[in-house]
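Handout for the seminar on molecular recognition.
Each group receives one record of this type.
Step one: identify the two inputs.
Step two: read the structure output and locate the region that could contact adenosine-5'-triphosphate.
Step three: write two sentences on what you found, then compare them with the reference statements printed after the record.
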Amino acid sequence: MPNIPVIIIAILAAALVAWILLRKRTGAARQADVSAPNAPSETLENGRRRIPESEHQIPRRYLDDNAMKVVYRLEDADHEGYLVGGCIRDLLRGLKPKDFDIATSAHPEEAEELFRRGRLIGRRFKLLHVRFGREVIEVATFRASHDQGEAGREQARTADTGMILRDNVYGTIEEDALRRDFTVNALYYDAKDHSILDFAGGYDDLKNNRLRMIGDANARYREDPVRMLRAARFAAKLGFEIESDTAEPIRELAPLMRNVSPARLFDEVLKLLQSGHGEASYRQLQRFGLFQYLFPLTDQALESDDYPVETLLINALCNTDRRLAQNKSVTPAFLFAALLWYPLQLRMRELEAAGTDLPPIPLLHEAANQVLGEQVKCTAIPRRFSTPVREIWELQLRLPRRQGKKADQLMEHPRFRAAYDLLLLRENSGEDLGGLSQWWTDYQVANPVSRREMMPEEQSDRPKRKRRRRPRKRPNQPPQGE
Ligand code: ATP
Ligand code: MG
């Protein structure tokens, strides 16, 4: 007969041991128990400054658990590990970080050995991705900029324009801080005492709402022209003033955007226009003459007096910002369909003027091929988005034709919702569609009887084909009069 109390005690003891081990492993115990020194901010050697927790006051509960696990794991293996970049900047601004990045003294292969769920990736430089369910924590080895690396290290290659092609040059934490773009992006959170390390004056800049490039802005934009887009984006997102030396070179260097790959620019466009501050980003892009390198056809269309190009563009971006603020989904397909709608109209007109004799829908597809073909030279558009863009456009031509069963069939179309949204935007922006968007708004909520009453008369835009009557076979009748 088993001794039940002993079994229960054994189970409880095992559970306690497991719990203690788990806490130790995750570092959660450390996060909760270590109290920060209440010391004032100190200036250390090399202008480095340490800001204690009592001063920066980032609540520990906002630090991502998984990111902290990664930092503690690195430290346990005698490496340095810090939360760095946008996450610290955003936490100090009271914003929710989009992702948590980690900088470490461990080389990528050393870091990889520590994480079962780690995977080395590397396009421009080697990084470790540590996966926790759907969350991915990015771990990057401290890097020096190409002209700082110690002798014997792999040298970065630069193009004639000064652009960095490859920069796998490992370095110290100071070097890592100085090769980052803006001072507010070079703050390191030290999990050992919960202080922040600042190598470039980013903490003060952040408190003063100032975006400042580390080093010589002109050279830093030449090294990587995407930094110009990042300047526009952070100014918009954070509501920061761009410091004059940082702002000044952008307009002149904007043409360097042509050297950036379309795939990278597509990613940047989404961060600029689909992260909740699209309208503000658009204004910054225009302020610096950068928009034309992302959407050249849209930028040209802004000159046209025939269409409300900028109104629709601003309305589309405000709409996207509002949806994101309400945690609603947004899709790049809608954004591209809206931004390129008038370039498409202009191209259709040009084709017609050149004598193309295509019916409306094939004409639209021909213009769509040309417009999208030119757009992908600047920003890649993956096929999973370009196909829906064409469908949203085609539906703009089909939405006016809603007689009989067509209206209900259109509503079944997978892109109906997006197409209806574009129709609304067009009419709200000043296009005269004869109240078509209101009709569709009403139709969607009407009951079947009202829907029948709403049905418009058959449209006369298509010439009605006369139905030929087949001569009816008459039964053999005796001729009249017989
Ligand atoms: P967010 O994630 O909100 O878009 P972020 O600043 O975190 O902003 P990431 O692209 O995630 O941007 O980059 C992480 C960090 O890497 C940055 O904060 C910055 O320190 C550094 N960094 C990113 N891109 C560059 C760049 N082009 N040049 C120099 N440093 C960069
Ligand atoms: Mg980030």
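Reference statements: The longest strand covers residues 126-132. The domain at 213-294 is CATH 1.10.110.30 (Hydrophobic Seed Protein).
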